[in-house]
């Protein structure tokens, strides 16, 4: 648990000398084994300071271990805010940008797109600071790096003047919502919806900027709505569905019917983030935005056809394109379709069936969530895949920041492969495993908490 850039460098140097791989763990929000290692694991909770705030330019430099929740509070004290966020704020900023974490907003890109500068500690213990001006190739790789380039130590973010959102939760017929998905996404600052399998109603959430003053709910009202109704009651119904899977279809229809409307005006980060107390595991795919309605229809039809016991809703969002090499939204305006499974319930059959649908619709898996892809199946989905691999080989030629997960989804580092080959052998055509190699996936168990 280093507490300075110098301590990160010293730890990386010790690990390198001992031949131990290094991985960094954030808050533990990810559902994959991205942070697991049999070598040295770094936790950056001791690096959680705001280092500099320039209110005029909106640039804020922070240490990598600060959580999004704490960051929101600190920048709000200076009259600033992040322009777009997801609905979870427990992640460290480094973990969020490393996995291309996003919110929703067809005209707004993901959290990594708000990064202006990154400081990395490299495999040899040196530090490298990159930006779009100073080192654009490394910067485009580092903005979504999966922890495979080095240890993110500091980040400079572009913030905007603080603002309020008017959030409206409601419901609408599912087919109407699907047909209007593009229109609704573009007409609002932030639009998303949820739909439970076996139901035909979309639960919508629309957040738009407003000049109205913040009027946060009372603590009692917030507790009743967000904790008792949204979490405790829903958790009990999920538990009932787990005990009696045949009752999940009527339970899902009941939950949909009971979901009420809500209007809220508050500081942006308070509207973006919501408590998630019910434990589940998740898979999410990014698609070209025009493919989202078909994806939702096909997933729902598959669940009903196979009579799968799925007590959690499907979540649908949209994000603008960006230019990070292996961002899920790289080079295309995207929609996101997320599927979940309640703790203690088998998920693999459901997730693999969903993934097969996403594969046919140009899907890219969320890096922090479950999927069954390999480097061989992923390479063709990212136009700049090889450029990312070139930066990776240059910054970490021996694969110090690798683990079983990166070897599966990125492939071993090319330079490391070349060094391990017999004399006369050349590198393979791709940096990932062959198409014939089966891609290992997560086991048929429940994952970590949301």
Task: Give a concise summary.
The chain has helices spanning 5-17, 68-76, 93-98, 136-142, 174-179, 181-187, 219-243, 248-258, 268-272, 292-306, 348-360, 375-378, 385-395, 404-409, 414-420; strands spanning 22-25, 40-43, 50-54, 59-63, 80-81, 115-121, 127-131, 151-158, 160-161, 164-173, 190-195, 201-210, 262-267, 280-288, 314-319, 334-342, 364-365.
Would you mind describing this structure in some detail?
By secondary structure, this protein is an alpha+beta fold. It is built from 15 helices and 17 strands. It has helices spanning 5-17, 68-76, 93-98, 136-142, 174-179, 181-187, 219-243, 248-258, 268-272, 292-306, 348-360, 375-378, 385-395, 404-409, 414-420; strands spanning 22-25, 40-43, 50-54, 59-63, 80-81, 115-121, 127-131, 151-158, 160-161, 164-173, 190-195, 201-210, 262-267, 280-288, 314-319, 334-342, 364-365. The strands form 4 sheets. An 8-stranded antiparallel sheet has the order 13-10-12-11-15-16-14-17. The chain has a 5-stranded antiparallel sheet with strand order 3-4-8-6-7. Strands 1-2 form a two-stranded parallel ribbon. A hairpin with a 5-residue loop joins strand 11 (190-195) and strand 12 (201-210). Mean pLDDT is 91; it is low at 422-450.
Q: Indicate the CATH class of the domain at 164-372.
A: Alpha Beta
Mean pLDDT: 91
Classify the beta-strand content into a percent band: 15-25%
Q: Indicate the multimeric state.
A: single chain
Low-confidence stretches are 422-450
Proper CATH architecture of the domain at 164-372: 3-Layer(aba) Sandwich
Strand order of the largest sheet: 13-10-12-11-15-16-14-17
Cα-based radius of gyration, to the nearest Å:
22 Å
Task: Summarize the main sheet.
Answer: 8 strands, antiparallel
Please give the number of β-strands: 17
Q: Would you give the CATH topology of the domain at 164-372? A: Vanillyl-alcohol Oxidase, Chain A, domain 3
What is the CATH homology-level superfamily of the domain at 164-372? FAD-linked oxidases, C-terminal domain
């Amino acid at each position: 648990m280093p507490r300075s850039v110098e301590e990160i460098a010293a730890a990386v140097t010790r690990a390198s000398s001992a031949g131990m791989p290094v991985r960094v763990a954030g808050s533990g929000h990810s559902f994959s084994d991205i942070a697991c290692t049999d070598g040295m694991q770094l936790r950056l909770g001791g690096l959680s300071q705001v280092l500099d705030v320039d209110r005029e330019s909106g640039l804020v430099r922070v240490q990598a271990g600060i959580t999004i929740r704490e960051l929101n509070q600190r920048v709000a004290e200076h009259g600033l805010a992040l322009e777009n966020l997801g609905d979870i704020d427990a992640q460290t900023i480094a973990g969020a940008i490393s996995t291309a974490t996003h919110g929703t907003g067809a005209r707004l890109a993901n959290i990594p797109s708000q990064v202006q500068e990154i400081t990395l500690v490299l495999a040899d213990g040196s530090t490298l600071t990159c930006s779009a001006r100073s080192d654009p190739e490394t910067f485009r790789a580092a903005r979504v790096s999966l922890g495979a380039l080095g240890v993110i130590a500091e980040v400079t973010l572009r913030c905007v003047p603080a603002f309020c959102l008017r959030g409206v939760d409601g419901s609408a017929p599912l087919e109407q919502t699907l047909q209007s998905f593009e229109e609704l996404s573009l007409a609002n600052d932030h639009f998303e919806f949820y739909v439970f399998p076996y139901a035909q109603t979309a639960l919508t959430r629309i957040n738009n900027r407003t000049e109205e003053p913040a009027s946060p709910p009372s603590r009692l009202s917030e507790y009743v709505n967000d904790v008792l109704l949204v979490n405790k009651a829903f958790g009990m119904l999920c538990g009932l569905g787990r005990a009696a899977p045949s009752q999940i279809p009527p339970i899902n229809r009941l939950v949909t019917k009971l979901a009420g409307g809500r209007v809220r005006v508050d500081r942006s980060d308070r509207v973006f983030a919501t408590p998630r107390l019910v434990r589940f595991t998740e898979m999410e795919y990014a698609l070209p935005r025009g493919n989202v309605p078909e994806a939702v229809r096909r997933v729902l039809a598959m669940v009903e056809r196979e009579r799968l016991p799925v007590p959690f809703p499907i979540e649908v969002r949209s994000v603008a394109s960006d230019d990070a090499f292996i961002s899920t939204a790289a080079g295309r305006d995207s929609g996101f379709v997320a599927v979940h499974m309640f703790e203690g319930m088998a998920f693999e059959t459901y997730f693999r069936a969903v993934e097969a649908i996403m594969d046919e619709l140009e899907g890219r898996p969320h890096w922090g969530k479950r999927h069954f892809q390999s480097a061989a199946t992923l390479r063709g989905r990212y136009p700049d895949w090889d450029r990312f691999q070139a930066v990776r080989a240059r910054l970490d030629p021996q694969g110090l920041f690798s683990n079983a997960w990166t070897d599966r989804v990125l492939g071993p580092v090319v330079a490391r492969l070349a060094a391990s080959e017999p004399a006369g052998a050349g590198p393979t055509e791709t940096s990932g495993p062959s198409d014939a190699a089966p891609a290992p996936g997560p086991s048929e168990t429940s994952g970590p908490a949301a």
